[in-house]
Write a structure and sequence with these properties.
The complex is a heterodimer. By secondary structure, chain A is of the alpha/beta class. In chain A, about 35% of the residues lie in helices and about 25% in strands. The chains are: A alpha/beta, B mainly alpha.
Chain lengths: ~260, ~375
């Protein structure tokens, strides 16, 4: 197989692994959607995953917090192996934040309630403290003045920034982003990417499925290219964009970089 | 040219006038084509034929508070049947001099309902007041404690019984229905099958047959000497029946929820119960308020079916009054009175649900 699962990570990264995926397979019915994924993620590493639609990128990161169940191989997150043990799954989910393409804010709760829900019910944080944390992160995503509003009253870009803040309130060790800007109007993409770049600069471990190649170039330690359920190629952004090694990667890059 | 885009010019463009006066409105809405004109004429004719005679019968030629004999001479409605019999219609066979007790219980119920309708009062203290309130209401009806004379439940009847069956029926059926709906969506095959079988079986039979089963067949299975109060059996039948319908409506609401809501809740580590209680049910139940209220309204009216197992609910006490020779033949007046009571109950439910829906829809 022509894959290089653990290409050299960027310089100055911790050697400690936060996510380890070993020979992981998944099927949707008869469709073999993930075909032997090997991936190790170091603490504070930032990985961008790209690839054509249907290549299994989203499914891969959804397996990491068990929104999808893998059927073969191992996934270890923060030292805990993902099995059907529900306690382990809930524990891993509290450590792994997820941002979705369609934001998935809770429309019946105000912005501040969206942010404090997880800390109060999962982390058992006192309400007042949870609200202070929530306001801190809302400031951070530049949206504190909207705290009392409801999701439906915000623009797409604002909603996605709230969704990022909501994940951060849980104080996660890893953040997963599943095409966070794909559902946004063009003029709102930048405000979300800016927030993600700030987050990257603070040393958050991030796995981002995106086609924003500018973001990949400026932020990622490693860019992975996926096709037909496999990681075809993984490299530093410079190497990845300048010297793609595989024909499929070249074809994909020629299609998206006009 | 440049003038055309100056802001000051905007003020001159006004929205088109839509008010055209009464005549214009009539022409536009009632006589805008020949079919509508015909329908308008026919409707006006029918109204003229029915409304004035009804008004004359009900208000002009009617008698309001006279002995039964006086009614025989009146050409209009004999409303006297109500003031002469309202205590039986409302309280049934409850001992006459103890009827202040169910009256007090009903007043308590209405006060509690009145307070509960404001969402600001939805706190723990309200739940405690309901528990205490229901206990006191039960005590007032049943007696036997604190020097209150005991009253057999066979003597309960009238509006009191209807309210009892409805309030307990609806408040117990709703949570049971929600649990059944969740069970039907369960990943555990045993739970799922059990819920489906229950829902489909109950929905497959009429309420009347359930009431018959509760009153006639069920006691046959009880060990000798054990009896369960007939009202409780009827109450259980109503709860089980209504819950099955509510379950299906709630299931519709659950299916309307986007998958992303479950995923967002799960991905922050909420467990199943937290996800349901905090995220899914508040949204799903809100979506299905209109059909849920329809079911609750029809359940409220269906309590009148307990008449077939010889319970004296509001409708039955009214019929009993009508079988009194003195008041024979004044069924129209009596039924209109009962209809007004039912209407007030149903209308306030639907009114309240609309208000609740409006309040809950903020932010959408």
């Amino acid at each position: 197989m022509d894959k290089e699962p653990t290409a050299p990570a960027g310089q100055g990264l911790s050697q400690e692994l936060i996510i380890e995926i070993i020979d992981m397979h998944k099927w949707f019915g008869d469709f073999h959607v993930l075909q032997g994924i090997d991936l190790s993620v170091h603490k504070q590493e930032r990985i961008v995953i790209c690839g054509p639609s249907g290549s299994g990128k989203s499914t891969l990161i959804r397996c990491i917090n068990r929104l999808e169940e893998h059927q073969r191989g191992r996934i270890v997150v923060d030292g805990i192996e993902l099995t059907s043990n529900i306690k382990n799954i809930e524990k891993i989910r509290t450590e792994v934040g997820m941002v979705f393409q369609h934001f998935n804010l809770f429309p019946h709760l105000s912005i501040i309630e969206n942010l404090t829900l997880g800390p109060i019910w999962v982390r058992k944080t006192p309400k007042k403290e949870a609200e202070e944390t929530a306001m801190y992160y809302l400031e951070k995503v530049h949206i504190a003045e909207q705290a009392k509003k409801y999701p439906g009253q915000l623009s797409g870009g604002q909603q996605q920034r709230v969704a990022i803040a909501r994940s951060l309130c849980m104080n996660p060790k890893v953040m997963l982003f599943d095409e966070p800007t794909s559902a946004l109007d063009p003029e709102m993409i930048k405000e979300v990417l800016d927030v993600m770049i700030e987050l990257a600069q603070e040393g958050m471990t991030m796995i981002v499925v995106t086609h924003e190649m500018g973001f990949a170039k400026s932020v990622a330690h490693r860019v992975l290219f996926m096709d037909s359920g496999q990681i075809v190629e993984g490299n530093t952004p410079e190497e990845f964009f300048e010297n793609p090694r595989h024909d499929r990667t070249k074809l994909f890059l020629s299609q998206i970089l006009h | 040219m440049a003038n055309a885009i100056q802001p000051s010019r905007k003020e001159e463009i006004k929205p088109p006038v839509v008010h055209v006066g009464v005549v214009g409105w009539i022409r536009k809405n009632l006589f805008n084509n020949w079919l509508n004109s015909l329908l308008t004429v026919v409707t006006v004719f029918l109204l003229l034929k029915t409304v004035p005679p009804f008004v004359r019968w009900a208000f002009i030629d009617s008698v309001w508070n006279t002995p039964a004999q006086a009614c025989r001479h009146a050409t209009g409605a004999c409303w006297s049947i109500i003031p002469h019999n309202y205590r039986f219609i409302i309280f049934g066979f409850f001992p006459y001099n103890l009827q202040w007790r169910p009256l007090l219980a009903m007043i308590m119920l209405f006060v509690l309902l009145f307070f509960s309708q404001n969402r600001k009062h939805w706190k723990k203290s309200l739940a405690y007041s309901w528990i205490a309130g229901l206990f006191i209401m039960g005590l007032l009806l049943k007696g036997g404690l604190f020097g209150l004379k005991s009253v057999e439940s066979t003597q309960w009847g009238g509006l009191v019984l209807t309210l009892l069956l409805s309030v307990f029926g609806l408040t117990a059926a709703y949570p049971l229905g929600v649990v059944l709906a969740l069970g039907r969506q369960s990943k555990m095959p045993a739970v799922k099958t059990l819920c489906i079988v229950y829902i489909e079986m109950i929905r497959g039979v009429p309420l009347i047959s359930l009431l018959f089963m509760a009153s006639i067949i069920f006691p046959l299975f009880l060990p000798e000497g054990v009896t369960i109060n007939k009202i409780i059996r009827a109450q259980a039948a109503i709860i089980l029946f209504t819950a099955a319908y509510i379950a299906e409506v709630v299931r519709g609401g659950l299916q309307a929820m986007a998958k992303g809501q479950y995923e967002a809740a799960e991905s922050m580590g909420l467990n199943y119960y937290q996800t349901m209680r905090l995220i899914i049910l508040p949204q799903a139940l809100k979506i299905v308020i209109p059909p849920t209220v329809s079911i609750l309204i029809s359940a409220f009216k269906d309590t009148s079916l307990v008449v077939i197992i010889a319970l004296y609910d509001l409708l039955k006490t009214t019929q009993t009054v009508l079988s009194d020779p003195r008041w024979l033949g004044y069924s129209r007046e009596a039924y209109i009175f009962v209809a007004i009571i039912y209407f007030l109950g149903c209308f306030s439910m639907s009114n309240y649900s609309r208000k609740l829906e409006k309040e809950l829809s903020r932010g959408d």
